[in-house]
Every structure is written in structure tokens, then in C-alpha cells.
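Hi R.,

Here's the chain you asked about this morning:
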Amino acid sequence: MDIDTWHMDRALELAARGQGLVEPNPMVGCVMARGAEIIGEGWHRQYGGPHAEIEALRIAGPRAAGATLYVTLEPCCHRGKTPPCTEAILRAGPARVVVAQRDPFPEVAGRGIARLEAAGIAVEVGVCEAEARRLNAPYLKLVETGRPWVLAKWAMTLDGKLATRTGESRWISGPASREVVHRLRGRVDAVVVGLGTAARDDPLLTTRPLGPRTATRVVLDSGANLPPNAQLVRTARESPVLVAAGETAAPARRQFLAEAGCEVLALAGTSHAERLDALLAELGRRRMTNVLFEGGARVFGTLLDARAIDEVHVFLAPKLLGGAGALSPVAGLGLAAMADALVLPSPKIEILEGDVYVHGRLELPRSTQ
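And the predicted structure, written out as C-alpha cells:
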């Protein structure tokens, strides 16, 4: 491994520490070095806080002059919640800056690199770019498409059932699996379920213990029919609840939920797919970076048919339920050809007290890319 890759690997490791803390900003890590010696390092620790470069430069102090700065994303050159990092870099006087990838954010988008080069600093771009893009894939998707990164989570039995034939689903997975789910909820911006799941399971959808983020709890409920005694309704003033209703939902139902503390959003569209698409667009406008969908089968089917799932988290319990009428995880139209299947090219597989936890990012088949 060459010295640039070695230092950038460390910068990426630092950047990952910001997961769940910095969104909708990107995760960024920075290393200041003189040859193999690291003289300063930092990462973006929280939204609105100092950027990674500022932390690394502060630690390096005067030794930053003539050194090399490694950063996982192009330094900002505009004033947002913090001053531009390019100006701090220029004041410190490194001889060289190594950047993993350019920032597509419109106010940066190459300008940060151009500012450094215009001042006579040697800039190299592309070291560990693939790894940097993977780390910040949710941020990149939000900036480039206006849509959040979609995670789908479900627990099922060995025979692929979400519940018994009578609808009972507690508990398919064990305590260790549920702890992982709570950690997922604690780092996302929203947790989404369909009305069927909300009515059948009566979930709270909160995080226990609290994570770095407080997710908005979202119910896909075209008729605004969420029951008054649902835990989501009863706790709406304690933790945000968004009811994604249709435009034809009864005004009285909308008003009741609003008065209970829920935000009621009337989504355009005559079909479930159109309203779900409108919801993702709205969550993107709100700069939600990661959105976790937890059911049910119709919701997952609609997302799959639209190729809208980016990442899956599946908990496979060593149980059999059977039943032709028992729910399976993903409904929708489905795919006609095996060649069109969405795959996890590099799945991670863990054993959690007997449950098998499979997670990874989906890859579209070549025919649809």
C-alpha cells in the first residue's frame, strides 16, 4: 500500500465516526502528514460543528506548513454554518492536498479544488475515490437526485413469513436482532411503515436507547385512518409523527390526527406508487438523508417495483410457520425473469443469537442500469 492510500484509509476510518451525527452534511475525515508521520487528524463530528480539515489543522499547528493534507471530500469554499475550509487550508500553507472525491454540492462542485490550485497548492484527486463514494453514498444520492437513501428492514422465518396466518408477528426475531434494529433507527431521519403494519402491530417505532438522531415516524395512510388509540397517535407530541395521507382523505380525519399532534401531509397521486414517490420527494426536500422502511409487504413491493430500495437489512429467524395465507415480506408486481433480480453483490452475514442477519446494498441488474 502506498503512503497516500495509507493516509486516506485512515481519513475514511475517521470520517465514518460521523455516521448519524452529521447528516444532511457528508461524513468527512482528514489527516495531516509529513511522510509517514501523522501530525494532525480530525473528522466532522456533528452537524454545524467544525469540519474535519479545521480539526486536523488545529492539531497540526505550525507543522501544517509544507505538509500534506488528506481529506475524503473536496474542501468547501463557501460560507455555510462554518467558514470556508479552503481559506483555513491556505492560511496553514500545506504543500499538497490529496482529495478522495469531488463534492457534487452545487456551491462547491470543483470550486474548492480550483481555489487551492489557483493559490499554488498541488492538488491530487481520486485516491480511494470508490471507498469514499461508498461511505457517502446516501449524501451523494440526496445531492444528485433530491431523494433520500432507502433502507428496507424486515424479519422473517425460514419459510419466508412475516407473521402467522392470523397476523401475529411478535416476536419473529430475537432480542439481539431487535437491538440492531434500534441502532438502525437511531441513525436515520425517518422510519416508515404502512397503515396495515401500524394497525396490526401497534408499534412505537422509537429508538431504545436513544441514538444520535430522532427519527420522524411516518405512516403511509392514504385515508388518514390511523386509529385514535394507536401508540403512534398517543405519543405524537413526544416524538414526531408524519401521516402521509392522500388528497382525498376525509378532512375530519386529517383534522383529528393534526389535533392529536401528528403532521398530516396530503400527497398527490391516485395510486400507492405515486403517493410513495411523492413522499420520497418530500422527504428529500426536507433534506432527510437516510430513511428506514419497516413494512409491510405492499410497501416493500411498491419500492421494489420502482427500484427504489438502496440497502436491505433482513433478519432470518430459525422458525417455520407455513400457511398459504401467511404474509411474505415483499408483495407488488414482482419480477418476471431471474436475470432481472436485484442482488446484494457483497452481502454481510452475521449470526445474532441464532438469527441470521443479512445486510448490504442492492445492485441493479445490468439490463436496467
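The first helix runs from residue 3 to 15.

Let me know if you need anything else.
M.
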